[in-house]
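Q: Structure tokens for this one, please.
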Amino acid sequence: MAEYVIENGRIYTEEEIIERGYIIVKNDKITDVGKGDYEGALTTYDAQGQHVLPGFIDIHTHGGYGEDAMDASYDGLKHLAESLLSEGTTSFLATTMTQSDENITKALENIIEYQKQQNVLKAADIVGIHLEGPFISEHKVGAQNPAYVQRPSIEKVQQFQKTANNQIKVITFAPEVEGAHETLEALHDQIRFSIGHTVATFDETNEAVARGAKHVTHLYNAGTPFEHREPGVFGAAWTNDSLSTELIVDGIHSHPTAIQIAYKQKGNTRFFLITDAMRAKGMPDGEYDLGGQNVIVKGSEARLASGALAGSILKMNEGLKNLIQYTGDSLDNLWRVTSLNQAIALNIESQKGSLKVGKDADIVIVDDEITVQTTIKAGEIHKFS
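A: Here is the predicted structure, written as tokens:
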């Protein structure tokens, strides 16, 4: 691939915001980030004064654009990964659900098969797997199927991990259930354990952190709420600095003020923007499947027949736009909640997560409304507006 320059952009780096600068891309890597106007002889791509950000990394997404990771469809994953570029997402964790061992195994095998052959120039790349369940509480299943909830064990997690070619990077689990402590203590150095779909108390949550848990899955959803005598998972998430938290920033799963509180507590280094999207994202209103259950999508909401929220139809760029509005903070501080924090958590920050010499040329250009103008994937330019 030819060498070229992205010029005339407002560039967001770890060290500073460059009001007017340029990025040199060679093959699939960033080879220079500079201030001012580019004055060399390389082909240029005009960012037109827009915001130049690292490509988004979504660590919790089940699907979208008519596809779902649990379908165990190679072509479906390919279509999903290609479509994600339109919202600025350049990397993601394919996320499974609480289902039968057979169906989870099929999904894991398909993800690995696709991952081995994925075209990283044409699609967001799968950088691992988020196993959401089946090791959750039957009392907080949300849109997961309670029939398939099971207790965690070291052996079962290792079995799934072997099937997944060691690509399970995050596991959502309930720390209070039988077998959770032993599994967490044995495997927390290999997998990021995330507290979610749980009825854990404040003390149980903090104990799980002491044993190696590091994250909270979709804070405020399927967890124990804050009460003044029992602060619950919410209170632990807010106050334990060893926990990072992910939120679905659609204004439906959590009130904007609740999101603002979480951001004030966690700051821009321990807050992760996620979509938790399901197959109906990018699709018209109607009925869709989520992990074997029927979901009704109307407007911006996806719900089971019971009325329970069933994942979202949020896009990453829309979530970032919402977050700016809900928190009152600027893109100068918020850009990293879509990329760098995730890259650090997944131990891929040497390749992804920020605009830095030597890193992958995964870049998104957005306007002031955070509408995606261009996504650059491994150096290849994809225009959307």
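A few notes: The longest strand covers residues 17-26. The mean pLDDT is 97.
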